[in-house]
């Protein structure tokens, strides 16, 4: 795959739908080097949705499945610098509400074309919608997967998208957050 094969992405060609049983066939063709992200999609995504654990949005581009993102609720425990930051603002809660990106993956053949960025914008819009119309939501959280291959190390991607490191490495992942309120 070429490293930067940017093509103009027309929003009319994108369809975003929550996963359902009718998608089973197209999931098989989804290609990612990260085997855990493929097995989650095939084995767990729909079941987790039925159990109300996470909601998985499938992304189709020109009718081909090119990515998915799974969302669930979360919170951030305020510790260290974050605790100090909020204390200075008289926010003394032990934790604050968040929307978590459980999984996010772009099909190998569609990486570095801008879809990951669009997916993060989609998540930010969902978090804003929740925060403005349903329930408080201050952060987006996720555990960025590390990879020895730099092009697959998602920490650089999330930093590029404005996420910050929450704390150090946890079993091959780095907890990160995005603050939805800009002072
Ligand atoms: C990480 C991932 C989601 C990025 O999606 P993508 O569609 O390839 O990213 P985009 O093309 O939208 O890139 C957005 C920006 O991030 C940069 N970027 C993307 N991946 C990067 C990487 N590994 N290292 C450095 N920068 C990266 C792009 O260069 C681009 O920068 P720009 O603003 O200068 O143009 C995708 O590569 C992927 O699915 N990887 C495997 C699964 C994974 O690790 N998921 C995250 C687990 S939580």
- The CATH superfamily appears as Gcn5-related N-acetyltransferase (GNAT)
Biggest β-sheet: strands ordered side by side in the sheet: 1-2-3-4-5-7-6
Q: Ligands in the structure?
A: coenzyme A
Number of strands: 7
Topology:
Blueprint: E1 14-18, H1 24-28, H2 35-50, E2 55-61, E3 64-77, H3 80-88, E4 95-106, H4 115-133, E5 139-145, H5 154-160, E6 164-165, E7 173-179
Parallel strand pairs: 4-5
Antiparallel strand pairs: 1-2, 2-3, 3-4, 5-7, 6-7
The chain binds coenzyme A (COA).
Coenzyme A is lined by residues 32, 34, 37, 104-106, 111-117, 142, 144-145, 151-154, 156-157, 160.
Structure in words:
The chain has 183 residues and is an alpha+beta fold. It has a single domain (12-179), classed as Gcn5-related N-acetyltransferase (GNAT) (Aminopeptidase), CATH 3.40.630.30. 31% of the residues lie in helices and 30% in strands. It is built from 5 helices and 7 strands; from the N terminus they run βααββαβαβαββ. The chain has helices spanning 24-28, 35-50, 80-88, 115-133, 154-160, and strands at residues 14-18, 55-61, 64-77, 95-106, 139-145, 164-165, 173-179. Strands 1-2-3-4-5-7-6 form a 7-stranded mixed beta sheet, with helices on both faces. α4 links the parallel β4 (95-106) and β5 (139-145). It is globular. The mean pLDDT is 94. The chain binds coenzyme A. Coenzyme A is lined by residues 32, 34, 37, 104-106, 111-117, 142, 144-145, 151-154, 156-157, 160.
């Amino acid at each position: 795959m070429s490293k930067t094969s940017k093509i103009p992405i027309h929003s009319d060609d994108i369809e975003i739908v929550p996963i359902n049983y009718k998608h089973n066939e197209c999931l098989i063709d989804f290609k990612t080097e990260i085997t855990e992200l493929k097995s989650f999609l095939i084995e767990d995504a729909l079941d987790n949705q039925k159990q109300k654990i996470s909601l998985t949005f499938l992304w189709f581009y020109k009718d081909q499945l090119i990515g998915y993102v799974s969302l669930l609720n979360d919170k951030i425990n305020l510790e260290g610098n974050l605790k100090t930051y909020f204390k200075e603002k008289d926010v003394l809660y032990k934790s604050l509400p968040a929307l978590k990106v459980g999984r996010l993956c772009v099909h190998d053949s569609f990486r570095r074309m801008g879809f990951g960025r669009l997916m993060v914008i989609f998540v930010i819009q969902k978090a804003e919608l929740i925060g403005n119309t349903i329930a408080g939501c201050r952060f987006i959280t996720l555990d960025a997967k590390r990879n020895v291959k730099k092009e697959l190390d998602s920490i650089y991607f999330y930093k590029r998208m404005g996420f910050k490191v929450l704390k150090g490495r946890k079993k091959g992942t780095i907890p990160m957050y995005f603050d939805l309120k800009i002072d």
